[in-house]
Amino acid sequence: MQLGGELRRLREKSRFTLAEAVSGLTISVSKLHRVENGLTALKSAAELRALLDRYGVTDDDDVDFLVEMQRDSLNRGWWSHYRNTMPSGMAMYVGLESGARTIRAWHPNVVAGLLQTERYVRDLLRAAKPVEESTTELVERTIQLRMERKEQLTRRDSPLELWAVLDEAALRRVVGGPDVMREQYQEIISLSQLDNVTVQILPMATATYRSSFNFNLLEFEAPLLTVVQTDTAEGSQVSDKDTTVWSFSRRFDALRAGALAPGETPAFLHRLSGEI
Question: What Rg do the C-alpha atoms of the chain give, in angstroms?
C-alpha cells in the first residue's frame, strides 16, 4: 500500500492517466490500478524502474528506496500459512494490523479479537461451527491465528497501541458460560493495565450515538495514511479513502465521548463478573 500510494502520487504529479502511464510497458492498466491501491505487488524491479523512468524519477537514492520497498512488498508475512483459514479480505487486514502503529476499534456485538481469551474465541467458534459447517481443524487454526495476533499487544519492541470501545451488550452476551465470561472480563482488565492498551465501555443505559457494526481504524508510521476496516457478511473490507476514514474517525470520536472513562473499566467489569 505504501509503494502503491507513492506510485499514484508520482503518476498524478506527472499528469499521466493510468493508460498513458503503462503505454508501451509490460504492465496492464488494471494491474497498475491494483498496484496503486495496494491490492497486488509489482513482481520485478524492472517493472518498477520502467514506471519510475516514465515519471521522471532519476535520483539514485529515490530509486533505490522505492526498489527496496518493492522487494519488501514481496515478502510473505508470518500469517501467510494461515491464509487458507481466513475469510475473504482477512489476510489483507491481518497484514495491515501487523504493520499498524495504532488501532482504534469499536465492537458492539462481541469482545474485540485482540482482547479475546482462548476459551472465549473457542466457544465463539464452536457455537458457529454447525451453521458455518466449519471443520475442527479450521476452528483450531483460527484460534491459533487470533492468539498470535494478540501477541502484538505484549511484544517487547514497539507494541501495538490499541484503543477499544466495547458496547456493554457485547460483554453481557454470554459465550461459553459464566466461567468463560469471568475469565474474559479479567483478561480485559489485565490488558487495560498495559500502557499501550486503552479500553472503554459504552453502557446500554447511556443515550448516545452507537454504530450497529464493528470497525477498526489503523494508523501507520509516515508516509502511510490511516485505513478503515469493516466486517460484513461477505468478509472483511478495507478502505483508505479520505472521506471514508474521516467518516469513521468521527464515529469513533462520538463513541469514545459517550463511553465511560478508561479508569472506570475495571470496576464495571468486576460488577459484571458478580452479576453473571
Answer: 21
CATH number among 3.30.200, 3.40.50, 3.30.870, 2.30.40, domain 87-275: 3.30.870
Q: Which fold has domain 2-73?
A: 434 Repressor (Amino-terminal Domain) (1.10.260)
Tell me the per-residue pLDDT of 96-141, one tens digit each, with 9 for 90 and over.
888 899 999 999 999 999 999 999 999 999 999 888 888 888 899 9
Domain coordinates in residue numbering, the chain: 2-73, 87-275
DSSP string spanning 58-126?
Answer: --HHHHHHHHHHHHHHTSPPGGGGGGGGSPTTHHHHHHHHHH-SEEEEEESSS--GGG--HHHHHHHHH
Complete DSSP assignment for 36-65:
HTTSS--S-HHHHHHHHHHTT---HHHHHH
**What's this model's pTM, rounded to 2 decimal places?**
0.80
pLDDT at 271 > cutoff 90? yes
Predicted pLDDT of residue 224: 65
- Residues 52/10, Cβ–Cβ less than 8 Å: yes
